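Example S7 (structure tokens).
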């Protein structure tokens, strides 16, 4: 897995890139209000046995708070790790609310 910024050309970020938008908002908050935006995520997911419709386990994963850009990366990596480990054990991890 690779996390990437969207660019129109090298060195020119696409204005609608979510990662760039988050950096821009963070910079405005810091420059104009002297605030640092932190975020913390708590993901709830369900583990299902493949080919069955009912869930077997409900799990909550709390990720500590940090700078918002770093927190967003941690959330993506955590979700991908959960999916990979579940798959290795013949399970399906779903982050869709029940």
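Recovered sequence:
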């Amino acid at each position: 897995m690779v996390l990437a910024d969207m660019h129109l050309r090298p060195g020119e970020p696409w204005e609608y890139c979510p990662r760039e938008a988050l950096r821009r908002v963070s910079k405005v908050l810091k420059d104009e209000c002297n605030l640092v935006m932190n975020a913390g995520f708590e993901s709830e997911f369900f583990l299902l046995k493949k080919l069955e419709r009912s869930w077997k386990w409900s799990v909550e994963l709390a990720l500590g708070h940090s700078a918002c850009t770093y927190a967003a990366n941690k959330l993506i990596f955590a979700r991908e790790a959960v999916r990979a480990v579940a798959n290795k054990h013949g399970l399906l991890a779903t982050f869709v609310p029940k």
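Notes on this example. The chain has two domains: 6-36, 39-98.
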